[in-house]
């Protein structure tokens, strides 16, 4: 489990698997909501609390560790914390106070602030998670959990801004029922200078992790920088998929039940 190729495969699998599990749970809640009414989304979030607790425990126990297993613990712990917050967002439990569609004539600063209000609570939750890990990791030997969460945080904020400013390709297939109003805040069109900036920063981060991996002198450093390089490369790939016409949705579509149709979703 210390070879870079093996670790890269592990990182890619965990990214794919955890994303699929979250999408599956949210899709189940959407389907239950169309039949039984509200409550299923809250059950999904509450059901994930033990995983959040395991994630916090994993981060805390990894901080003083100097072994490869401490690297795994920090990486998985940060993923678990991040995943729970993302699930709370995708279920609509932690999103924002604005739940209405974007008026078609809205533009400029008014459109930005209205878009911010659709995701404000989610952004605050992500930021609080980051601040909590920063405080926990302050002065710690093992910083893998902090760097893992930081890569995810920067990539997510960048992706949301690019969807707002405009990108050629937007995959709407996995937008949950309770967040259907977000579609109106996305802009499909030519890539903006912000996209170029995002790609540059993520490429630089990936290159830095790869450089540190090449220079690594211990198995711990190899594990840490391989996982971080793979994660930042996946974030970079997700951004490129906003402009490159590849069928990325097929990665998870086969494992998910059909989404509720529009009229069913609107009953919520």
Explain what this protein looks like in three dimensions.
This protein has 268 residues and is mainly alpha-helical. The protein has one domain (4-266). It is 68% helix and 0% strand. It contains 10 helices and no strands.
Give the helix/strand layout.
Blueprint: H1 4-36, H2 40-47, H3 49-62, H4 68-90, H5 108-137, H6 144-165, H7 193-214, H8 219-240, H9 250-253, H10 262-266
List keywords for this structure.
268 residues, mainly alpha, 10 helices, 68% helix, globular
Brief write-up:
This protein is 68% helix and 0% strand. The chain has 268 residues and is mostly helical.
Average pLDDT confidence is 88
Number of strands: 0
Number of domains: 1
Secondary-structure element order, as H and E?
HHHHHHHHHH
Global outline: globular
Question: Number of DSSP helices?
Answer: 10
What is the CA-based Rg, rounded? 19 Å
Which stretches of 5+ consecutive residues score pLDDT under 50? 262-268
* Helix percentage: 55-70%
Distance between the termini: 46 Å
> How is the biggest beta sheet arranged?
none
Structural class: mainly alpha
Strand content: under 5%
